[in-house]
Design a protein that fits this description.
Layout: H1 9-39, H2 51-54, H3 64-71, H4 83-92, H5 94-124, H6 132-139, H7 141-144, H8 147-161, H9 167-190, H10 196-203, H11 208-237, H12 240-245, H13 253-263, H14 268-297
Helix pairs in contact: 1-14, 3-14, 5-9, 5-11, 5-13, 9-11, 10-11, 11-14
Length: about 300
């Protein structure tokens, strides 16, 4: 936004100080990303910039660590490419197995969190709902309580119920962490919802399921999808709960990165982090587009 021509020198100085301060904060926040991405192309097995990289020598850059994401853990990584080689990657490569587990767990937890969170948000949006604030506080508590406490409680609970060291336990735990995000986003979408639309539809003879799928769901869909994306990111990024409730062979990408830091220091971790950053940017862009669509549907003017 341009500075108004009638602004005083003090107002102009404050505006420029504000812009510079925001720029420095933004630079501080993205500095780790600016370092990780180029280091993932390091030709040497180091976590520092080599002389060749600093001089922009092509020999100092390589895709070897991205190839490691495919070959680490394979039985025959040097075999000629083909169907057998890709089958070896799919069944034995450690990073590929971790990615498969993360996707399966993330999608399953997201579906469960979206279903339960949307139902809870619809109920909490009703003015006649008793103890709304108390129920809301309980449902979003996993977002507020430190994850280490949640993971500890889940460990003892799963040990007593037989869910420990199982994929079902991990999915339920990740769904618990994702439900608050779904509730908050769907509740925010329902703030401007016109309930007279549902009353009019029911007066015209529409059944409750028809009202929900034809009127309510299309209007709250951007909030539901946004909440689902947040729940998926939460599950995809979670490592503390997995360390507590998962078996040693139930690896996810964050846990694989954690093991890589502790057991085998390799710049392949930087390559995985770079791919996760790109993935997160795509998801956040989708969330922003959905937010704008939701505002347009509710008639909110965008600045």
């Amino acid at each position: 936004m341009a500075i108004p021509v009638y602004a005083t020198p003090l107002e102009r100085a404050w505006t420029w100080a504000y812009r510079i301060g925001c720029g420095l904060i933004f630079l501080f926040l993205i500095a780790p990303i600016l370092i990780i991405i180029p280091l993932s192309f390091n030709a040497e097995p180091y976590f520092t910039f080599t002389d060749a990289m600093l001089s922009f020598d092509p020999a100092g850059y390589s895709m070897r660590w991205y190839e490691t994401l495919l070959t680490f853990g394979m039985n025959r990584p040097d075999a000629p490419g083909g169907a057998a080689w890709w089958a070896d990657v799919w069944h034995n490569a450690a990073w590929v197995q971790a990615a498969k587990n993360s996707i399966i767990i993330g999608v399953s937890a997201t579906l469960l969190a979206t279903l339960l969170g949307t139902i809870a948000a619809l109920g909490l949006s009703r003015p006649e709902m008793p103890f709304r604030r108390t129920i809301m506080a309980v449902l979003i508590s996993p977002m507020i309580v430190p994850v280490i406490i949640t993971a500890t409680g889940l460990y003892f609970f799963y040990s007593a119920t037989g869910l420990a060291n199982s994929y079902a336990g991990i999915i339920l735990a990740h769904a618990t962490l994702g439900i608050p995000f779904v509730i908050i986003t769907v509740t925010a979408t329902l703030v401007g919802f016109d309930h007279s639309l549902t009353r009019a539809a029911m007066n015209l003879g529409a059944s409750p399921p028809r009202v929900f799928f034809r009127i309510i769901m299309p209007l709250i869909l951007p909030g539901v999808v946004s909440g689902a994306l947040f729940a998926f990111v939460t599950s995809f990024d979670e490592v503390v709960v997995v360390l507590f409730v998962a078996a040693h062979d139930q690896q996810t990408i964050p846990r694989q990165m954690w093991n890589g830091i502790r057991e085998q220091i390799s710049p392949a971790i930087l390559a995985a982090a770079t791919l996760l950053v790109i993935f997160s940017i795509i998801l956040l862009t989708t969330v922003e587009l959905l937010r704008r669509r939701s505002e347009r549907l509710r008639g909110i003017k965008q600045s």
